[in-house]
Amino acid sequence: MYSLYFHIPFCRSRCGYCDFNTYAGLERLIPAYLHALEQEIRHAELQAAGRLKVHTLFFGGGTPSLLPLTGLERILSVLHAAFDLDPRAEITLEANPGTLSFNYLQGLKALGVNRLSLGMQSARPEELRLLERQHTYLEVIQAAAWARQAGLENFNLDLIFGLPHQDLESWAHSLEMALRLHPAHLSLYALTVEHGTPLQRWIDRGLLADPDPDLAADMYEHAAGRLEQAGYLQYEISNWGRLEPARLSELGSGFSRGYYAAAVCQHNLQYWRGLPYLGFGAGAHGYAAGVRTENVLSPAAYIQRMQQPGPAVGAFPLTPATIGSRVVGLDDEIAETMMMGLRLVQEGISTTGFKTRFGMTLEHRFSQEIEELTRLGLLEWQGSGAQSRLRLSPRGRLLGNQVFMRFV
Length: 408
Ligand code: SF4
Description:
The chain has two domains: 2-272, TIM Barrel (Alpha-Beta Barrel); 334-405, Arc Repressor Mutant, subunit A. The chain is 41% helix and 22% strand. The protein has helices spanning 30-47, 69-82, 102-111, 125-130, 137-149, 168-179, 198-204, 213-229, 245-250, 256-261, 266-272, 299-307, 330-341, 351-358, 362-365, 367-375, 394-398, 400-405; strands at residues 2-8, 10-11, 23-24, 53-61, 84-95, 115-121, 155-161, 185-190, 232-236, 239-242, 277-280, 285-288, 291-295, 322-327, 349-350, 379-382, 389-392. It is built from 18 helices and 17 strands. The protein is an alpha/beta fold. Residues 11, 14-15, 18, 20, 22, 61-63, 96, 119 line the site of iron/sulfur cluster.
C-alpha cells in the first residue's frame, strides 16, 4: 500500500523561523502549479507497474488551505482515476487557521478530506508575533469549532515549544489552551533555529535569547505527563493521538492496542515504518521501489519541467520533476529502519519484523550498540522472544538524536 504526499509551497507571508520550501507572493502560480501536479500524477500512473493501491493522501506545505476547492476537487478526481484509492483512505490537509472559513471546511469535507492539521503553535499573542505567525489563538478556536461543525472532528494541532523568552508556565498555558479544543491529535515540536532564517539572524545579533535546551527538555517532559493524564497516547517522539476509551475496551492486549484506539496519523506512520510513498510537487521527496527521490525546489521550475519534460526521465518512481535519486543499499535501509522505527515510542523495532526484512537478527547486527544504550537506560526491550521489540525508554525520548546516531 502506498501513501502520497503533495507539497503546496505557497504561504501568504514567511514566518521568521521557517526553512520549509515555501514562498510568499507566488499565489498567481497556483493554477499552473495544480495543472503541473496533475501531470506529475499522470506520469507516475503511466510509469508504475500496475495500478498502485493507496491508503493515505497528505496535502502539506506551505499552506494547502490557500488552494481553491475547485483545484483540489480536480486533483482528487485525477487521483481517483490514476490509483486504486482505498475508500477509507486517510486524507489530510494542512491549514493555517487564519485562512479558513466554515464554507471552505464544509467544501473540504464534501471532497473527502477527513483529517485537518492546524498550525496553532502557541496561544500567547507575543509568541505568535515572535514567530511571525499571521493568526491569533481566537482564529484557532474558530477554526476548531468550524471543523467540528463541518464534520472534520479528526484534527491535529501543531504546537512549538522552547521559544526564546518562553517559560514553563507559558508553555503549560498554551498546552492547556490546545487541550480545551479537544483535538484528536497533537504534534509538539521543539523550536530549532534553522540556518539562514530571520530567527537565526535575530539571535545572532542578540535581539532574541538563544533557546535553552534544558528548559525545552522540561517543557517536553511536562507535555508528556500532561497529555498522558488527558488521555492521549504518545506513539512517536513528537506525536500524540487521543485514546478513544470505548475502542480501547473492545481491544485485546498487546502493543497495537493503542494504535487502534488512538487517533494516530496513518500517513506519517508510513514514513516511520519505512513503507513506500510518492512525493508530488516542488521539493517533494519520495521513497518507492527501493529508490529515494527528490523534486526540484522552485515552483516555477517545477511547473516548467512538468510542461516540457526533458527526453530522458528514468523509470518509476522518477518523474520529470525529479532532480535527485538514490538507490537505497542494504546498510542504508537498515540505518533508516533503526532511525525511523525508534521514533515510534510504542512500536519500536520488532525483532521478528527486522529478521524477516533483512534476514539477520537485530541483536546480532547491533549487539554492541544495543548493549550499551540499554545499559545507559536509553533503550529498552518490550515483550520477549519473537514478540520482543526494541524501543526508546522515556529518558531516551529526550536524547533521541544521540541514540539514532549510534545506528548510522
Ligand atoms: S505558514 Fe508554515 S510553511 Fe508557511 S512560512 Fe509559516 S511556518 Fe513556514
